[in-house]
Write a structure and sequence with these properties.
The protein has 4 helices and 5 strands.
Length: about 170
């Protein structure tokens, strides 16, 4: 009997370990339906109103600048895969850019994938702040003796009132 219990516990432990190895897939951004896909927008017939009615609001709109003759709407979607404790990895990314002319007519539809992406190097410099750095003890005990005792008593001649009920 103990041999059978040991086998069951080993199988349960193995199943638990293997369940932790299954990836978790999460979809972020715009999720197209069977009836409405951004790639199916027709530049000859569609306008801003028809695109908005069919696809809904875009993920991102381009800058609204009066000097620009065209407006671009982006519908973005990504699928991330995550294993247990590891950092998530982007498995799939699609960005559909729909360009409109000044009359609101669709000019072109461009499709971008994960292979079109580029890595951007971030600058990790820090902006210095003015003043001196305080230690933890200076921050905790630094206000002792600096509190204005004439304003603590709820006196009525303080500008803005004494504060609190009846003050």
């Amino acid at each position: 009997m103990t041999h059978t219990v040991l086998k069951i516990m080993m199988i349960a432990g193995f199943a638990t370990v293997m369940a932790g190895c299954n990836p978790v897939l999460r979809t972020h951004g715009y999720v197209p339906t069977d009836e409405a896909k951004p790639q199916e927008v027709n530049p000859e017939t569609d306008t801003k109103a028809t695109v908005l009615a069919r696809l809904g609001n875009p993920s991102v709109k381009s800058t609204f600048d009066e000097d620009l003759d065209e407006d671009v709407w982006f519908y973005m979607r990504s699928v991330r895969q995550r294993y247990a404790y590891l950092r998530p990895k982007i498995e799939e990314r699609s960005i559909t850019a729909i360009t409109f002319n000044e009359d609101g007519q669709v000019q072109k539809v461009a499709e971008y994938g994960i292979e079109d992406g580029r890595y951007v190097n971030y600058v990790d410099r820090k902006t210095p702040t003015r003043g001196r750095e305080l230690s933890v003890l200076e921050q905790v005990f630094g206000t002792i003796g600096r509190l204005p005792t004439d304003r603590i008593g709820g006196q009525q001649n303080v500008p803005g009132g004494g504060g609190g009920p009846g003050g």
